[in-house]
Amino acid sequence: MFKQIPTRNLNWIWITVAILLVFEIVFFHGGALISALISGFFVYFSWKRLHSLGWKIVFAIAAISFVLNVFNLLAVRFLIVVAIAIIILNYIKSTKEPSKEKPELPNKSSLTEEEPLVQVDRLFDERFFDDFRTEETAYQWKDVNMHGIYGDRVIDLSNTVLPYDTAVISIRHLAGNIEIYVPYEVEVSIHHSSIFGRASIFGVYHGRLMNKSLHYETKNYNTAHQRVKIVTSLFSGDIEVKRV
Question: Which GO terms describe its cellular component (predicted)?
Answer without folding.
Answer: membrane
